[in-house]
Amino acid sequence: MLEPAYQADVVVVGAGVAGLSAAHRLTSAGVTTMVLEAAHGVGGRMATEKVDGFRLDRIGQLLSTAYPELRLTPGLDGLVLRPFASGVLLHGDGRHHRAGVQPGAGGARGALHAVRALASAPRPPSAPRPPRRPVAVPGRQVSVPRSRPGAPLGTAVDQARLGAALSRLAGTPAERLLSRPELPAVEALAARGLPARTIDGFLRPLLAALLCDPGLTTSSRCADLALRAFARGRLCLPEGGADALPELLARTLPPGTVHTGVRVTSVSTTSVTTAEHGEIRCRAVLVATGARAAAELLPGLRVPDFHPVTVVHHTTDEPPGTGASLLLDADLGGPVAHTAVVSLVDPTRAPAGRALVSSTVLGRPPGDVDTAVRMHLARLYGVPTARWETLAVHHTAEAVPAMRPPHDLRRPVRLLAGLYVCGDHRDTSTVQGALHSGHRVSAAILADLGAGRSMHVAEPVPTVPRAA
């Protein structure tokens, strides 16, 4: 019998960052690859809407400069990351407190030697000044703020304990974290030996922002990995919007690799069937869609629960005086989990003379989400928000796959010889997890196809005339 004519060695279904990163590794190894995407653009949930010169992320997941796959993934050499101001800014007890890395600290060992609570941003007009005590200085007398027991990070001793805990976590190998006993993150926090106000005022709002999980039901192992990345690097955003990352991956693949507007209806180990072009033959199929779409093509695949995310974008002429900081609510006094003047983090996201404020609501949003968010932002920033213009409200019900314990961070990516799956639902529900799953699955495919074996030359996807 004659060997069937293949149109590609591997067909990748889905052009999110997991599938695109896998395609890069496959093509780099000489494997002819075809990426099919049902939408008319790449990126999946890493989408950015363009409105009047603004770039508005739909989900706005936070990235970290400590994510290894941002450095290891082929095709991302040209990615520009815009970091937030060091650490985070906490709003608690009517004031702003900075929780950040000590100047000069950091690096591979994650030397987070101290976490300091500083009233570094303007106080809301109604907030009282803390009492001051005199300090003896030769020739004069000055005053410094008294220690405020209500500060989110607690006393100086509490802050030192927190800094030491984060420093140890930053220096712990990831594989050792994955071998720890597994609990819901909220229970594991209580067992860390830190004061309740440090946990409630800093760690809980920080982890909720990093994991998109307000109830902290996430596996403690995943929470440890998130805190480890926070301690080792800087929170950041891709320059130009979240879609800059998948678009860069797609643009740097060989011409003709990615085909958008192609809906796959079924898959097997040797072919995929599309609604537009019929059957496409191949040697292996990789399903790189979201969890629910993957389960429709691969019956029996587990569909996780999801964390919904709502992002509200406002613009104003005068940016609030918090700088390029990620602002968290230590008091949990409203729907906003975190907010930032993102145009100060990444100036390409807003036209000149305008400020873009993006705020994230986790869980089910309130009925009139824009009004509730405006009221909360007025307290967080300490400025009136009634005249801010609403640019967009993006609600994504299945934004982030839940990672409740027991959670397998290395779910199998090889289902059968010739049939594979990847995505953040096979790893951690982060950009790092999506890219790493693409790394794992490309290694599995290359091992099965045989390194050095001659590969086929991809044939073009047949075109179908579109209705006017």
From TrEMBL:
What InterPro entries does UniProt report for this protein, alphabetically?
A: Amino_oxidase, FAD/NAD-bd_sf
Top-level taxon in the UniProt lineage: Bacteria
For molecular function, the Gene Ontology terms on record are: oxidoreductase activity
Ranges for domain Amine oxidase: 17-446
Where do the record's region annotations for Disordered lie?
A: 119-154
Matching entries from Pfam families are given as: Amino_oxidase (PF01593)
Check the record and name the PANTHER family matching this protein.
Answer: AMINE OXIDASE
What protein name is recorded for this chain?
Phytoene dehydrogenase-like protein
Organism, scientific name = Streptomyces paradoxus
